[in-house]
Design a protein that fits this description.
heterodimer, A: alpha/beta, five-stranded mixed beta sheet, 12 helices, 7 strands, elongated, B: 186 residues, mainly alpha
Chain lengths: 301, 186
């Protein structure tokens, strides 16, 4: 064995990993080579010192500090999970509700158009569902409201679109080209295919105005946020101050969350901006009772 | 081990007490690993807490393909390396040690376990620790795992997620670098 090979094998030798025959050969080389022998001696000494390095104890209070942080995370996860739990249900009902309401509006529009034809004896165009809204009342408002909510969650209103597709046969039966207002779904990429299909069938989608929008806006004002801050107690105090400064009413308050009443979009925006200054804000995209915003304050270093 | 499996399942299901009991078996090793990697007790605590928080957050994704200890060590290693990259400027410089007056005053150890000898042993440990901190983090890590905490080459390969051959060459180079850093001062 020469010095080069001995150097290559030295770690395996020191770790006791050399097979017996190779070990004997290695040791024979050490006997013959003072340089390699000294190198191994020094290395062994260093490894001895490393091996005897004492373990240090975990500092006092380590457990309680860790426990506090883990507890905060556990609570945060529970609150996030509870959000997720009612989210799909909410989404499902939105889809179903939007579909049903859309079907009602379409059906009533078609019938109204047919009646108008009967009265006037000529083909007519229903320009806007606002006419319909007087008859169908809140249900028309719900269409827009639910439609908007569903879209805000990135959800294509399949049921509603399907209903529109099915009902598209109706105008042909009454020989009336029909214009039906259907929220902002035409703006959505996901809906473009359905909108195109509707166009072929003589149905054009246009935005709804006035009262419907106001009702939708009231729901859109609601929401749920997670606010991540290093000190939850301070943040909760600051939220109270913020609410007072922008004229918001605190409906409810716990150690971890605040329920606020929002009156308009500006107020909601002011709240969001102020929260963003306190820490990281996560919009859970959950809609609550009208005008109600829930802020969960969560510890994050 | 079955106790650990049971605790693991309970922790995965969301039991914080089970999690805390589960990781308590590793905290001293991980704390020491972080301490040797940083040479700072304060940083070691911060890092160890960060490790266990990350373990807690990621526990649901732990499939059991590796041993729990290996997985926790790997998280610790990654966190220490990240910390090193963020604080490169604060890393102990080897040249400072080699030129430092204090270190030059350290005398070779004798066989007598006198109070002076104990003090000397402590100083030697501190000096060695400083030399370890002068190594690049990959080498530091293998020295700590192999020569201080006595993990096998295979375990180190699993922790560092490296081929066995790379671990062997890292250990060899790390020891040579450390030996050179220590010089004749031990």
């Amino acid at each position: 064995m020469n010095c080069k090979i001995a150097r290559e094998l030295s770690d395996a030798y020191l770790d006791g990993l050399l097979p017996d025959a190779q070990k004997r050969e290695f040791e024979a080389h050490l006997q013959a080579c003072p340089e390699c022998s000294e190198s191994i001696r020094q290395m062994r000494e260093m490894l001895g010192f490393l091996s005897s390095m004492e373990e240090v104890e975990v500092p006092e209070g380590f457990h309680s500090r860790l426990h506090e942080r883990l507890q905060a995370i556990a609570e945060e996860e529970i609150s996030a999970a509870s959000g997720i739990q009612h989210f799909p249900l909410h989404k499902k009902w939105l889809k179903w509700g939007a579909g049903l309401a859309a079907a009602v509006v379409l059906l009533l529009s078609v019938r109204l158009a047919a009646q108008l034809d009967d009265i006037t004896g000529q083909k007519s165009t229903v320009p806007d569902v606002t006419t319909e809204q007087n008859a169908s009342g809140q249900s028309a408002a719900n269409v827009k409201m639910l439609q908007k909510s569903a879209e805000e969650q990135g959800n294509t209103s399949d049921t509603a679109s399907d209903s529109a597709g099915e009902l598209a046969e109706a105008p042909e039966a009454s020989h009336a080209p029909l214009t039906v207002t259907f929220g902002e779904s035409a703006d959505k990429k996901e809906d473009s295919e359905e909108a195109g299909k509707a166009d072929e069938d003589g149905i054009k989608l246009q935005p709804v105005e006035s009262d419907i929008k106001m009702s939708a806006a009231r729901t859109a004002l609601s929401g749920e946020f997670n606010l991540y801050v290093p000190d939850t107690a301070i943040a909760l105090n600051k939220i109270s101050v913020i609410a007072a400064s922008i004229g918001m009413t605190i409906k409810d308050e716990t150690d971890e969350s605040v329920v606020l009443l929002v009156t308009d979009e500006d107020q909601r925006k002011a709240l969001y901006d102020s929260l963003a200054k306190l820490g990281r804000v996560e919009d859970l995209e959950i809609f609550n009772e009208e005008n109600t915003v829930i802020v969960h304050v969560i510890f994050e270093k | 081990m079955s106790g650990e499996t049971q605790l693991l399942e309970m922790a995965k299901a969301g039991s914080l007490p089970a999690f805390e009991e589960l990781v308590s078996a590793y905290e001293k090793k991980i704390y020491n690993y972080c301490y040797r990697m940083t040479n700072s007790r304060e940083d070691a605590e911060d890092l160890t807490q960060e490790v266990f928080i990350k373990v807690y957050r990621s526990l649901k994704t732990f499939k059991g393909n590796s041993r729990l200890s290996t997985w926790i060590y790997r998280i610790a290693h990654n966190i220490c390396i990240d910390k090193y990259r963020k604080n490169k400027a604060n890393v102990f410089s080897l040249s400072q040690t080699r030129d430092g007056e204090d270190e030059r005053e350290i005398e070779p150890a004798s066989a007598e376990p006198t109070p002076e000898e104990k003090m000397l042993a402590r100083e030697r440990q501190e000096f060695l620790q400083k030399c370890i901190n002068g190594l690049k983090p990959e080498y530091r890590s293998v020295i700590i795992l192999r020569d201080i905490q006595h993990y096998s080459y295979e375990e180190i390969a699993a922790i560092l997620d490296m081929p066995l051959g790379t671990v062997k060459s890292h250990i060899s180079r790390a020891r040579s670098a450390l030996r050179e850093a220590v010089g004749t001062l031990l």
